[in-house]
Specification:
By secondary structure, the protein is mainly alpha-helical. It is elongated and about 60 Å long. It is built from nine helices and two strands, in the order αααββαααααα.
Length: 240
């Protein structure tokens, strides 16, 4: 939460935490008493009043637009399309936006990941199956050592995508993930969201290596469903 509009200077943009901007915007909306249909100040004025960099503010407004909180038009500016009242908890509203964004991203990602696993299970060469197995072992080892498992997780899924013989799977899924993480590098302040799914990656690799398409599909769906359930739980905790 921004306690003073002069707390940060615009040139300190690189130090901005992404979720600080939604907090500051919500506080401004509350203090100004803006209602649905009202126009927010222009971006340059927001930079001056809130002390954040213009690109950071712009990215937050783009996310709000995708969530239906604002509408943006070159001629009409940025207008509220959803109520943001003083009774709304600032953190809860921010968490709600993050949750909705992540859930929508997972809804798009789920069928792509399942289809990728199905193709990999059918088409992977012996060398690719060995690599998938090795990447899974690496991921589990890093996880059990209590280290940051995200890079190893990315390498595991890349090995699966490469085994499909269609690199569009990797490109499209990476673009979906990037759209979210450009704004929320650590969803809900949790850099290891989805950590409970890591033990399932071993059995998933085993299923792919064994050519068990049904089992691999079930495990992939379960992994994504677990992330969605964790996301929904966090959202409900913050929103009562």
């Amino acid at each position: 939460m921004v306690e003073s509009p002069n707390r940060k200077e615009p040139e300190a943009e690189q130090e901005d935490a992404p979720r600080d901007v939604p907090h500051a915007l919500i506080k401004l909306i509350e203090e100004e008493g803006l209602q649905v249909g009202d126009r927010l100040p222009p971006e340059l004025e927001l930079v001056q009043r809130l002390g954040f960099g213009r690109s950071t503010i712009r990215e937050t407004l783009k996310t709000w637009e995708s969530m239906g909180v604002v509408s943006r038009n070159k001629g009409a500016g940025t207008r509220l399309t959803a109520e943001v009242s003083r009774s709304t908890t600032r953190v809860a509203l921010t968490i709600k936006h993050e949750a909705e964004s992540l859930l929508r991203m997972q809804q798009v990602r789920r069928p792509l990941e399942i289809e990728a696993v199905r193709f990999a299970t059918r088409l992977a060469t012996p060398e690719q199956r060995k690599l998938i197995n090795a990447r899974a072992a690496e991921l589990i080892a890093v996880y059990e050592a209590g280290e940051d498992w995200r890079p190893a997780d990315h390498r595991f899924h890349r090995a699966v995508h490469e085994a499909t013989g269609n690199l569009l799977f990797e490109q499209i899924i990476d673009q979906i993930l990037k759209c979210f993480h450009d704004i929320y590098e650590t969803p809900f302040g949790k850099p290891h969201l989805g950590q409970a799914t890591i033990p399932l990656h071993g059995p998933l690799a085993d299923a792919i290596v064994a050519g068990d398409e049904q089992k691999a599909e079930e495990l992939t769906g379960k992994i994504i469903d677990m992330v969605c359930a964790e996301t929904q739980q966090i959202s409900e905790e913050y929103n009562g």
